[in-house]
Amino acid sequence: xxxxxxxxxxxxxxxxxxxxxxxxxxxxxxxxxxIRPYLRGRTVEYGCGTGTFSAHxxxxxxxLDLVEPASNLCDILxxxxxxxxxxxxxNTLEDDITSRATASIDTAVxxxxxxxIENDCTALTELHRVLAHDGHLLIFVPALNWLMSDLDxxxxxxxxxxxxxxxxxxxxxxxxxxxxxxGDFIGIFPWLILNKxxxxxxxxxxxxxxxxxxxxxxxVLIEKWVSPPIGKNILLVARRTGQ
Length: 243
Prior knowledge:
By secondary structure, this protein is an alpha/beta fold. Helices cover 38% and strands 21% of the residues.
């Protein structure tokens, strides 16, 4: 793996939650199933963490740029991946995207990223600029601002989104929304009780494994037939139309 530049942001992230969340393979597969049909060509994954999704994305695209602001997580990524067509940049989305040429990428992946960006509309405008004609923007974000918790704030979330709000922001900068939905309806209830009401600020490994193995499996089965009116998260695919 080559590095896009020699700069480092000297930002660290303990990554404890990422280590625990890697024990949610069914949850990750659910997200991948949603975005897989749109992955192609020159792809950038922003905020890739320790590479949980990168490992699934890489075989499906021509080239993959990993952009991660935490220096210590970049060290993990360097050790995990050694593939010539992957590049790694220790950078924020905001700084990385301003250096990219117009219409220079085919796919941008933001999984649990947009909520971290203070000026998300500016970021979306720049993403529209750097995507090529018919390129896709793939977004996964936390939903429902009334679920905003101490855990969200600890992890640097500026907001949680509503479906119509996200559609509006993406559409206003020129994207055409291809697919969007709330997901993980059942997940609202443990989040509301544990994180909102009881103000829990960490993840319990046993509960994470139980949720992924049993509760999420039930959620996927139900949501396969019934699209929920609300959910703990939003999945969105948008296409850049026009020249």
